[in-house]
Amino acid sequence: MNKTLRVNTYLQVAVFAIATIASSCATKKQTADRTLTLKTTATPGGSTATATIGAGKKEGIKKFSDLVGKTKADAGLFNTYKIDGKYYFEIPDSLLSREMLVVTRFVKTPAGLKSFGQQYGGEEVNNQVWKWQRHDKQIFVRVPSYSVRADSTSDMYQSVKNSNLDAILASFDIKAYNKDTTGVLIDVTDLYNGDVAAIGLPDNIKKLYKITGVDNARSYIDTIKSFPLNVETRTLKTYRAGESPTDNTNGALTFELNTSMLLLPKTPMKARLMDSRVGFFGQGQTDYGTDAQKAEATAYIHRWKLEPKDEAAYSRGELVEPKKQIVYYIDPATPKKWVPYLIAGVNDWNKAFEAAGFKNAIVGKEAPTAKEDPEFSTEDARYSVLRYFASDVQNAYGPHISDPRSGEILESHVGWYHNVMSLLRNWFFIQTAAVNPNVRMAKFTDAQMGELIRFVSSHEIGHTLGLPHNFGSSYAYPVDSLRSKSFTDKHGTAPSIMDYARFNYIAQPGDGVTHLYPQIGEYDLWSVKWGYSYFPGKKTPTQEKEMLDVWTKEKAGNPLYYYGRQGTSIDPRLQNEDLGDNAMKASTYGIANLKRILPNIEKWTFQKGEDYDDVQTLYNEVIGQFNRYIGHVTMNIGGMNENFKTYDQKGPVYGFINKNLQHDAVIFLNQQVFTTPKWLINGEELSKFDNGVIIGRIKALQVNSVANVLNASRMARMFDNQSKNGAAAYTVADMFNDLRGGIFTTGTPDEFKRNLQRGYVDRLKSLLNEDASPSFPGATSAQLAGIGLTPINIALSDIRPMVRAELTKISTSLPKGSDALTTAHYADLRLRIKEALYPTRPIVNVAGGGAPGRLTDDAPQTDTDCFPQTK
Fold it and tell me: GO MF annotations for this entry (predicted)?
């Protein structure tokens, strides 16, 4: 017997026993008035049976007039009634078994709540599809699954139905039939008042704050309002909690939530099949209805439904307005001075939709006032809204909700955290102040900040249109082109605003570059054309795919139209925060600018009467930016290019990075990192805030950079390259020789070099004696390799023989030392090497493993989504 089922069965028996004992001690009237029931609540981990005291004895079906009386219906999708404190749905027969999207959002939350993406009013809690179905004298809410499918005309259709039964979320007794018996009346009070995971608090918050359940005495349904296509329910729920973000004395947390139930189209939008060569969010399923001789995995892109008002004019190539425009409303809580810039960020996408043949396809608007539209609500699932949060989070994100049957995007609530402006200010200063006098100030002008907000708004709206990050886009522009004023005025920093190609850190003083941020570019126009172009007639998704494939192959090989996915550390082109087609060259320019900025931080951000917190923040940002440059370069070592292709396209999908580029990457590290970057130690600036940690930070940065280079997955790819390509490969032996030349230089090593040499030896020691292979239980080798964690069995690989040889070379080449400290240092290294080669005690890895493409210095690395992952 399933453990959960067994526990729940025991619970039911115990509850029944308690109920029996209680009933024997009560009067007959009490027994008649109060009935013990079991309510089943669906949770992410299964169903949990909970005992509740329900309503009175089961009543028969009443006359509609007797139950409703003179209560006026709130007419809409379902007519709704409030009678004696209870809420009723009148469900017409015509809507039984129709699919409805149910979206629950926070309206108000407790102060200090910590759960990223689910902590502020307006953020989504859950979404699910419901179907209301009738069986005898009951109504059930069923939750369909869309993970497997087969077309209704397929021979497999019935078989798929038989193994894809819809779960039952809730059940209701029919209280009455409506006047003309074309619908039924049910009581939904307990559904919306109860602790139902699908429309209540998410499991992660329950665990975080040790929540045990809803306190009904401190909870209520505020309103239920019905509209032609949706029903909006607002509830206030107080949860019993063992922890609180602010005050544990209450023993509870109170939330206000809104649940929207939106009728889905009877006929789903025609789906568009995904293509790995063009970036779109999507959804996958196993399709048993195809002609393939296997269970075929298919996927549809997420996109809004755009159809031309005038199909004939559209077919002639004229720009045509869509039948239904995409509209985004700006949260009324947004500071007024930023509203025009947020709207501009929405409207900027119209030029991309023009590439798909539509004009005025999208528009940003201020939300109507209560006087203009008393029914408008920012929580209503009919409306897409850019929600503004009073938050210290430095982020913004652009989610969307789609029809699981077709991929049609139905609505979106962009999350905009107030403190994203702090991140924008810091990064724009650190990346451009060397060439941009306009940011050499403590606080940007509203016009300057407004333009940055507009850029982020466009990026987040792109996500809500179905576009994921395109981390490969910025590689399309040559590094030197980003030093050209005419080029950057036209193109910005990358062909796609969906890349994390922030601000132009490459341009040098005297270049005259003034346009320093990304914009909607060539790739964005192409991807919107690919996803949103309308094909008249009754073409199937497969037929449309054949037409789109011709378009895709025409763009193949042109870096302007390259899509590079997020989520892999194999391809050095696919990095966040990078610019240009050569990381070594771009990072050299970037470091030159950091050297110009760092000595001037205090001068350029002077604030009378303020302490030096801002100087410290920006100094840390300089170190963080330097760290990013190191990561960009390191990814070239053992890197591979990834170019998805189909059978009818020539050339490899995966190819190793050129040998010379990998060599250049190690030489860059030798020059910029392993030769101590003492320019980071500016005594005048540091004296304002540093209490003796900067030297340790630089040492840690150097040692962690070594660990990042000597990564087992990286070395696995290098051995693979050598096996396949021989002398054309940059080998592990080449890397060791190059690293040793930079780390063990001639002359007396200073404290930084001594620390670095110990770190190098200790990292080799860990590779020789520890299992540093990537370990992700349940993941296949192919899945690990797909994200850059190339599997390797270190114990049986060539890593250890090479490491042993390297340690021996170091030991035999160490000099005696010119002074007592240096002599002691070299003696210590020899002992460390001896212990590595002939271990006598457990090994402790002091250098750290170093994740692929990632550094572990304590400087902040703000890689949050979406502006700085999209949720």
Answer: metallopeptidase activity
